[in-house]
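Onboarding guide, step 5: your first structure request.
Type a short instruction followed by the sequence, for example:

Predict the 3D structure of this protein.
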Amino acid sequence: MKSAKFIAAAVLGIAPLAAHADNWACEVVLCLSNPAGATAVSQCVPPIKKLFKSLAKGRAFPTCNMNSGASQGNSARNVMLSGRTCPAQFRYYVGKKAFCQFQGVIDVKVSNQPYTRVYWSEGSTFTEGGSNQPVRLSGADGSPANDQLMN
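The system replies with structure tokens like these:
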């Protein structure tokens, strides 16, 4: 059922991205919007690996012009995580110092609605959300929300 909803969202909400299939940033956003995981589709593995390597080196999140025509309101944004900003379910401690299992979190919106959230490190990801599961994008202080796991 999730796959059908993802395909419907891709066709209806993100279809203009297909016209830019050679655009790495748009491929990244399309792959990140998959509730099954950013690399669940084999064609997404290379652009997502490239993304995580780029973000790990401190480079900016790539931009894709998704706000024209039928794709208005689609966006993705990366926030780097630290022990202080990490959701409790991914936080661990060494002595009194807090660390995070993931380096960052990417929030994807489709039609201005939270769609997926992808926690990432260069070697692993965790995806929350999908078209039938609402995702709260930020806490009261603007940091990533400390939501329950939604798989």
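Each response can be followed by summary notes, for example: Residues 2-129 form one domain.
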